[in-house]
Amino acid sequence: MHLFRMREAADLLGISDDTLRRWADAGRLETVTDPAGRRAVEGPVLARFAEELAAEGAHLEVGEVAAASVRNRFTGLVTRVLKDGVMAQVEIQSGPHRFVSLLSREAADELGLEPGVLAVAAMKATNVSVEIPSSR
Predict the structure, then answer these.
(1) Which residues are 75's β-sheet partners?
(2) What structural domains does the chain harbor?
(3) Which of 39, 71, 98, 108 could tie 88 with a disulfide, CB 3.0–4.6 Å?
(4) Rounded Cα distance, 30 and 39, in Å
(5) Alpha carbons 117 and 4: distance in angstroms, whole number
(6) C-alpha to C-alpha distance for 77 and 11, rounded to whole angstroms
(7) Which residue has the higher pLDDT, 130 or 10?
(8) Residue 79 exposure: Cα atoms within 13 Å on the Cβ side
């Protein structure tokens, strides 16, 4: 089970860790205690919560763009993985943005993609590839 510390979870949702703690204290988000005794959120729980926030339209306003790249990368949580014999459909929720990628089942299996996994949706033109960050 993938666990995210409160600060990590807040960063992924695009909110402050204080807001996330308040929501958890109010019962809006289920938390657990990690092996070090800190509050954390299980990956699948965080993924569902990210989808709920996006559906509510809860997101931060983006200010002016200081710089942009040709290749766009969005860090988020895998919320759904559908696999058949050859292909996989992977959905990633990054703040208010939902990305869907079609890739081989073999690639999805090798990346260990499942709901709650931290991933990066990297776009160039019409293609979306899925990456796993080297560290959290």
Answers:
(1) 120
(2) 3-56 (1.10.1660.10), 72-131 (2.40.50.100)
(3) 108
(4) 10
(5) 10
(6) 11
(7) 10
(8) 23
Instruction: Give the model's pLDDT for residue 69.
Output: 55
Give me the residue label for tokens 């939902």: 98
> Which amino acid makes up residue 52?
E
SS (H, E, C) the chain: CCEEEHHHHHHHHCCCHHHHHHHHHCCCCCCEECCCCCEEEEHHHHHHHHHHHHHHCCCCCCCCCCCCCCCEEEEEEEEEEEECCCEEEEEEEECCEEEEEEEEHHHHHHHCCCCCCEEEEEEECCEEEEECCCCC
CA distance 36 to 39: 9
- Tokens representing 109 are 């299996």
For 24, other C-beta atoms within 10 Å of its C-beta total 17
Amino acid in the structure at residue 109:
D
Model pLDDT, residue 64 = 55
Residue 18: pLDDT band by 50, 70, 90 thresholds? very high
Q: pLDDT exceeding 90 applies to what percent of the chain?
A: 62
113 three-class SS:
coil
